[in-house]
Amino acid sequence: MPIAEQFRERKLDRMRAGQAACDIVPLVSDPEIRVALVPLTEAEYLRSMEMAAALDVLSNRVALEFQERRQTNEILWAALRNPEDLSEHAWEDTSAMTVDLDTADINHLFDHYLEMVDQSSPSIDGIPEGEWDLLKKALQEIPWNELSGKQWYAAKRFLGSVFPTLLLDRSPGFSFTNQSTGMSDESEPASNVSQS
Fold it and tell me: pLDDT at position 128, please?
C-alpha cells in the first residue's frame, strides 16, 4: 500500500477512535458544552485562507480586519469537531457556527487553537539554563490574588494548560487555583504554584 494511502487510512482510524491529537475545550458561553479542536492539515489551512482571500474587500483597515476575522472563522470551523467523533465537524458550516457562538467563544477557541499548533518549547526558543532560576523566582513573587483583567486571564490560561488535571478535578469556575495561587497567612505569595 502506498505511503500516502497508509497515512490517510491511519489518520482516519485514529480520528474515529478519538485518538488523534485534539484538545477538548468548553465554550465560554456554555461551559457544559465541550468541543474538540484538531490541528488542520496544510490543505485545510490553505482552504481557510483562500475563503478569506476570495472576499472582495476594500483596502482599508476595517475591511482588512473583516477579512482576517473571516479567516479566523474558517480556520475554527475546520478545526472544531465532535468530541465523540473527530471526523465530524461540530457545525455544518461557518455560517451556522458564527450564528451560534458568541464573540467571546470565537476568541477563546481560536486562542486555544493557536496554542495547540504552536511548535514552541524552551529548547526551540533557546532559553539558557541559567534563566530557569530567575523564572522560578519571578513566579514565586507574583501577587496572584491581586491579578485581574488581562493578567488574570493569562495566568488562568497558563495554570490551566500546565496543570490541566487540576481544572478537571475541581468544582465550578477556577477554584483549582485557590491552593496553587493563594496567599499564605503572612500575606506572602504562595511559594509553589504546583501545590494542590
Answer: 76
In a domain, 149, yes or no: yes
Interaxial angle between packed helices 103-117 and 149-162, expressed in degrees from 0 to 180 and rounded to the nearest 10: 50
Report the SS3 class of residue 26.
strand
Same domain, 134 and 86: no
Task: Assign residue 127 a region (left: φ > 0; alpha: ψ between -120 and 50; beta: otherwise).
Answer: beta
Residue 166's pLDDT is 52
Give domain status of residue 125, yes or no: no
Give the count of beta carbons closer than 10 Å to the beta carbon of residue 48: 22
Cell of 27: 465554550
Question: Maximum distance among all alpha carbons in the chain?
Answer: 67
Q: Output the pTM of the full model.
A: 0.56
CB 82 within 8 A of CB 90: yes
What radius of gyration, in Å, describes the C-alpha atoms of the chain? 20
Domain housing 153: 130-196
Mean pLDDT by 10 residues, the chain (196 residues): 77 61 88 90 88 81 88 94 89 95 94 81 68 83 86 76 54 42 39 39
